[in-house]
Give the backbone structure.
Amino acid sequence: MLASISIHPVTALTCALALAVMAVNGWTDAPNAIATAVCTGALPFRRAAALAALCNLLGLLWATAVNTTVAETLFDIAGFGADRAAASSALCAGLCAVVLWSAAAWRFGIPTSESHGLAAAVTGAALALPGGAVRSGPWLRVLLGLGLSVTLGWLGGRLGRAALDLTRPGPGLCRRGQVGGAAAMAFLHGAQDGQKCLGILLLGLSLPQGEPARASFSVPPELALLCAGVMAAGTTLGGDRIINRVGREMVCLSPRQGLAADLGGGACLLVCTLLGLPVSTTHAKTAAILGAGSRSDRRVAGEIALTWLCTFPGCGLLGFFLARLFRFGP
């Protein structure tokens, strides 16, 4: 499959864009996993980013060995019709839309879900083609994951805070626990978001051969390793704006509350990953922080919620119009 990259220039471009999305995901989305540990002083930013990079890599490799249903969901998210060249061009447009949306969100320090942006942009780009279609099964799993991530994340953060308030561990113990919590969150982020980008990359490699058959899905180990490495490299680039927005401006966290958010968000991601449901690390962790925190800034939380609501239509429309532009051009 990888040999096709050197044969088809459009395939090479598609793969480069998919890897760019993965790098941007590590840069702008992975910081959510370590936000609480950095903001409560459990880890300095650079050490936390290095820990997240390693755990992102390990998480994706683990997920591809255990359960690839999340990757399959993105692989099957939309139908691109019979025109192979147009299909590859539309997928490139969708990937460009995700990069643009994510970069704009990072510029304003708003944690957006690249998972949902990816699903919406790729579907919007497919609908710009004759014969393009939305596939209901994968989208039902995406929407179910959306509801569960917010609900279970908030509930997990709230229950984690209640349990820790009863046991009353000291700040030092909580900070040490947060190191493990940050590692677990980053590991599960790699398992979730790494799979989604991997599914789109496999789709890009398959489209030049025609509309991929449902039974054609498989994950080459070398491709999983490449994707994991790119995501890890992207994580080391930073993301401090998003960390400040979530962990300092949105809510005030003590070490105990930070540990509760890590436990709640991690439990939500683990359950959904084992069930094969695609969920957003951003949604799960932000909801867990709001559940665990004592004082939240409603203005900041409202801005974040508004961005989440705009992600599906915004990325979908951007993918659609970029696909039309790429296809018909000036």
Summary: The first helix runs from residue 4 to 7. The radius of gyration is 19 Å.
